[in-house]
Amino acid sequence: MSQTAKIVRGAEAEKNPLGPLSSRQHFTGDSDGLPVLTGIQISLPGYQTNLHFHPYPEYLFVLEGEMEAWLQGEEATPSRLGPGDMIVLPANVPHVFRNPGTTVLRHLGIHTSPTRIVKNL
Length: 121
Fold this sequence. Notes:
There is one protein chain. This protein is mostly beta strands. It has one domain (13-120): Jelly Rolls. Helices cover 0% and strands 43% of the residues. The chain has strands at 14-17, 22-28, 37-43, 52-53, 58-64, 67-71, 79-81, 86-89, 95-98, 105-111, 119-120. Strands 1-2-3-10-5-8 form a 6-stranded antiparallel beta sheet, with no helix packed on it. A hairpin with a 7-residue loop joins β6 and β7. It is globular.
């Protein structure tokens, strides 16, 4: 790993659409040699992921808006998060998150892998 600090400017971060209601700004991971993948996901009201899992823990830190998240089997009792809240989703456990609010949801996603691996169910 490099011995220099890496600065990623949000205005210059690569943006990838995730469908009509969401996009992700890529910050670290994949080919930069850093051991974690990070990025900010921007989701409009009504956005919801598919039921999916990762083979590593995933950390979601809410920056703006509201998020509901749950593990498979816990759909009736989702966890509700707001700015400053974080949820840690365990490895290999199917989960969903969504924007139930009326404003934009922005969250920092941290994948404990240099590459984003998603298994959709």
